[in-house]
Amino acid sequence: MPAVRRPERGVPPAMVLHTSDRNLIAAAQVGDLLAFEELARRHETLVYRVALRMLNRPADAEDATQDVLLLAWQALPRFRSESSFPTWLYRLTTNRCLNVLRSRHPSEALAEELAGNQMTDLEVEHALRLEVVKAAVARLTAEQRAPFVLREFEGLSYAEIAEVLETTVPAIKSRLHRARGELASALSEWI
Predict the structure, then answer these.
(1) Of the candidate ranges 21-25, 157-161, 166-170, the one whose mean pLDDT is the lowest
(2) Any idea what the Cα angle at residue 139 is, between residues 118 and 179, rounded to 5°?
(3) Does residue 22 form part of some domain?
C-alpha cells in the first residue's frame, strides 16, 4: 500500500476491529490507511474467490486481488455508497478479471497434471470431473463467465449482478441462459 500519513482524527488502531464497514470507509476516504487495511482484510477473500473462479489460476487470482485492492484504495475517495461496499468490490474485481480474460490467448492449458499423486481410482475420477467442470467454465466467454460466477458461486441475485456488471436484469438472464447451455453441452458426456 502507498505510504499515507494517518490523519489526526482517524479510527484508533484498537477500535478498528470493532468498527463497521461504513465507519471504516469514511475514515479511509480521508486517508486513514489502518481503516483501509481492515476493510481489505475483511473483504480480500471475496475478491480472491471471485478472481479465482473467473481466472481459474491461483497466481492470476492473487495478482488480480492485489490489483483490485490497490484500485479500491485509489478510488475510495470517490466511493459514494450508492451500492454496498462488497457490491462495489464485486464490480472492481469483475472488471479486472474481464480485462485479464480479454488479454489471454484462447488456447491455453486447461488441466493440471495429476502425476506424482497417489490417488485412488475414485479420487482420480473425481479430480478429472472437477477439471472438466473448471475447463468448461473457463471456456465460457468473459461476458458469460462473470454472471455465472456471481450467480452460481457467489449467490448474487439477478438485480445485484446487473448492478455489478452495469447492465439490465434481462441481459443477465440471457447471458446466464447461454452460459448454462454451453456448460450443459460441454459436460454432457459426464452426466
Answers:
(1) 21-25
(2) 115
(3) yes
Q: Are residues 93 and 76 in the same domain?
A: yes
CA distances from 30 to 9, 14, 17, 73 (A): 9, 19, 18, 11
Which of these three, 75, 104, 133, is where a domain ends? Answer: 104
Q: Which of 104, 125, 147 is the last residue of a domain?
A: 104
Instruction: List C-alpha distances in Å: 5 to 1, 73, 185.
Output: 12, 14, 55
For residue 142, tell me if it sits in a domain: yes
Task: Kindly state whether residue 123 falls inside one of the protein's structural domains.
Answer: yes
Average pLDDT, stretch 161-190? 91
Residue 177 CA neighbour count, 13 Å, CB half: 6
pLDDT band at 93 (very low <50, low <70, confident <90, very high): very high
Q: How many domains does the chain have?
A: 2
Mean pLDDT (whole number) for 131-144: 85
**What's the CA gap between 153 and 137, in Å, rounded?**
12
Residues 119 and 83 in one domain: no
Burial category of 75 from C-beta neighbours within 10 Å (exposed 0-12, middle 13-18, buried 19 and up): exposed
Q: C-alpha cell of 54? A: 473467473
* Helix, strand, coil in percent for the chain, rounding step 5: 70, 0, 30
